[in-house]
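Ops channel
N.P.: pipeline sanity check, posting one input/output pair.
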């Protein structure tokens, strides 16, 4: 029973590490998103100062931005799905811990008598 208890603790530690990794990935994705926005504004301002965009140039720029944001959205959705899956596993572990502890402590009291 002690092994089951220890295994549960180890699984919680692994899941906590995975949650932290997901948070880091999400932060990196958001940072990339912000950088793309800043780069786009800088590029637009620079080009508007020197060259007037034609309708076609705007179309190309919009397509480029849409492709980048679509990729970022996919990354966010994937990270979010992994996070939801991890949270459901954590909730299941949290639900199982009391019964594991009860079984562990009840067997321990039998062994010590």
């Amino acid at each position: 029973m002690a092994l089951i208890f220890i295994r549960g603790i180890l699984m919680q530690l692994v899941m906590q590490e995975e949650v932290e990794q997901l948070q880091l990935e999400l932060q990196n994705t958001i940072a990339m998103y912000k950088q793309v926005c800043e780069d786009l504004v800088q590029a637009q301002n620079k080009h508007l100062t020197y060259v007037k965009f034609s309708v076609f140039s705007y179309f190309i720029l919009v397509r480029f931005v849409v492709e980048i944001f679509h990729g970022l959205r996919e990354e966010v959705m994937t990270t979010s799905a992994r996070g939801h899956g991890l949270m459901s596993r954590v909730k299941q572990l949290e639900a199982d811990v009391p019964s594991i502890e009860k079984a562990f402590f009840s067997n321990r009291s039998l062994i010590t008598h």
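N.P.: looks fine end to end. The mean pLDDT is 77.
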